[in-house]
Amino acid sequence: MAVIGIMSAMHEELAAVLSAMPDEQRLQVAGRDFWVGHWQGHSVVAVLSRIGKVAAATTATVLLERFGVDTLVFTGVAGGLGSGVRVGDVVVADGLVQHDMDASPLFPRHEVPLYGRARFEADAKLAVQLAQASEQVLADAALHLGPSTLAEFQLNTPRVHRGLILSGDRFVSTSAESHALRQALPEALAVEMEGAAVAQVCHDYGVPFAAVRTISDRADDTAHTDFQRFIREVASSYSLAIVSQWLRQRALD
Ligand code: ADE
Prior knowledge:
Layout: E1 3-8, H1 11-19, E2 25-29, E3 32-39, E4 42-48, H2 53-67, E5 71-80, E6 90-98, E7 119-121, H3 124-139, H4 141-145, H5 147-152, E8 160-167, H6 175-184, E9 188-192, H7 195-205, E10 209-217, H8 227-252
Parallel strand pairs: 1-4, 1-5, 5-10, 6-8, 8-9
Antiparallel strand pairs: 2-3, 3-4, 5-9, 6-7, 6-10
Helix pairs in contact: 1-8, 2-7, 3-8
This protein binds adenine.
């Protein structure tokens, strides 16, 4: 049976996932808690990714090596970079780039040395499935969040985007930095701190990978506003509903 790994970036998201797994058992490896169980009839291992590229890469490697995960999905939040990518929207990665990788002049900027590439692709089929699940959840956003949360965070007609996600070991919280990222990588829709590293690990192991991120801020001078509350009240509900919808659909396929 396939084993699906679910990496959550935030405690609140993981808690939401665990509340949906009736039989989870905790196993500790490398100082991390891995939760092994079932969800919607699938074998699932859920874990907190930890923050930053190296920590997330270690977590991903353990999932693949020790838990035999053969499909890996990452959920979390990200800062919006693309025009029209607003707080409360969802971005599903088509590809991921480490924006802080720079071994120039030995290698072109952003290229990961010895891989001959800067960009790691998400699995196309998984990305389509997750985008469909996200569309379904956002179409019913009021159902998942409640009208008062929608109003409070001013989430009007949230949208699903697909495209490039950037990762780096920085929380981007100035307009100057997000402007520089847009200049360097104009296609980028969103920025976070783990996805491209996990995509690289999955590439190494030949395991399909996908990432879904809810936009929590615009990676600018206002990026700190109500971050924790947004994760608790919006992003965790979205992640739970999107992954749940995806698993339900997958069981039918
Ligand atoms: N995750 C959520 N918002 C982010 C930001 N602005 N920069 C990096 N990671 C993030």
